[in-house]
Amino acid sequence: MVISRRRLGVLAGLTTAAAALSACTAASSGGTTTATLNVAQVDKYFTAGLNAETAILAIPGVSAAFGVAGIAALGVTVATLKAAMAAFDAAAGSSVTVSLSTTSVEAAVNSGLAAIQSLLTQFRAMIASLNVSSSIYSQVSLIVSSLATIAAIVEALLPVSASVSYAADQPMTEAQALANLGVH
User: Fold this and answer.
1) Backbone φ, ψ for residue 131 (5° rounding)
2) At 140, which CATH number?
């Protein structure tokens, strides 16, 4: 397999970014880089996505902004995220860490990331039509920004072919984002 300089730079950048995260370490041996994921930390990221949906809908006036169809769509996305988390946990078994070279692990993380990104898309579309007080709007924005931070972290864990990058509106650390989404 021929790797272009650009692809090599992207892979090196992803490896560096992933190595800096608490959920991932990378090691190179003989020209092969293996990334290892911390199972508990990845579960925290998935839980953050699930908690974001609950937190958003608990804010007064937000459920009405989503409407029945919007809430049903959120339900489908949350079910996908739960399935990805279950698949990840099944692939990890009782391991504390798992290798990204395992196809089922990578597929589960990709699926979970896609679901988190879908939640962000749905939340951001809803925000555009939200007609609430500035304090409620601030609560919604904090949840969305926290989830965007988590999405960016998960995206850095591995190269995802069909992902959409989301930047947090309010820059924050991983710990702050997880705390904002009720994950400790």
Assistant:
1) -125, 80
2) 1.20.120
